[in-house]
Amino acid sequence: MRTIQIEGPGVLRAAELPEPEPGPGQLLVRVHACGVCRTDLHLLDGEVEIPRPPIVPGHQIVGTVIGRGESAGAGAALETAEPLEIGARVGIPWLGWTCGRCRYCRSGRENLCENARFTGRDIDGGYAESTIADERYCFALPEGYSDLQLAPLLCAGLIGYRALGMTGDSERLGLYGFGSSAHIIAQVARFQGRRVFAFTRPGDQASQDSARKLGAEWAGESLTPPPEELDAAIVFASAGELVPGALRALARGGTVVCAGIHMSDIPSFPYDILWGERTVRSVANLTRQDARELLALAPRVPVRTDVHPYPLPDAGRALEDLRAGRFQGSAVIDLDR
Q: What CATH number does the domain located at 2-155+286-334 have?
């Protein structure tokens, strides 16, 4: 089968590999679409470590179940929301396996599992014609969406949704970096009755226009003060220098949520912009409950994703276009092209 692998920092290559064989409790999935995520860039650039390269990246996978391994037992079946039969359309996200035994797993915080394995980093991912995945970490997908439209929900949507949950009942919400995650979460936030303020790269009029079309009442450059104080802000961009700016935009008691798996260093800032019970916190990965909730909510909003398809051989171009900000919305690898 055709794949794209990361062989080491800066090295992305096409490779022909045998179709994988599912083990106990695993599904064999024919990949139709796989979203392109900034985490894929961090892996390629060596900013997020790949424990055992080479690896097939990609963790926003939409595909069809075409095979399964032996049953892993009743315990595994109980963790699956519903049986995923041959022919079912499924989604596979970043969180690919957890141990179920560490203190985080036992306290409902599987996203912090000390032994977690991640799709596209520890487990071969979706830049391939087929992949295998633990059935407990695969999800049935809502109708009414194409494969390409669904792919961005599986990381951009899920991480954004978890970050949004950390802002509590904040009414005035700032989104810093209006890319794949923000264009989804802006829609969810508006559905929840929040007011959205969008912050973009300097001069990025296209992203500002996109934000307004999706319901943002104000859009401007990342270090420009908003017209009024924010109750919360989510920093989707991996630029640490945005955190002090977001803090300065907050009302007392507000929260800045850093939503990336990697961020450049946050510069020092004066205590007075943190004072007033403001907080800064991060998001780590996702839980299966996050996935179930968002996939049920998306059709109700309804969330619409702006997707830009690339054939598998052009995965490198998709990543560089993402790096340069050459499109609005989400890049998706189309395995059916």
A: 3.90.180.10
